[in-house]
Amino acid sequence: MKKLLFQFDTDRFPSVFDTVVAYDGGADHVIGHGGVTPDDISALVEGAIFTRPPKDKKNTAIFIGGSSLTDGQILLEAVRQKFFGDFRVSVMMDSNGSNTTAAAAVARLAGTGPLTGKRAVVLAGTGPVGQRAAVMLAKEGAEVTLTSRTRLRAEQACEDMRARFGVSLTPAEAATNDARGAAIADAQIVLAAGAAGAPLLEPHHWQDNPNIQLMVDANATPPVGIGGTNIMDRGKDYGGRLVWGAIGFGMLKLAVHRACIGMLFESNDIVLDAEEIYLIAKDMA
Ligand code: NAP
Question: Which residues of 194-208 are buried (b: 16+ CB within 10 A; e: fewer)?
Answer without folding.
Answer: beeeebbbeeebbee
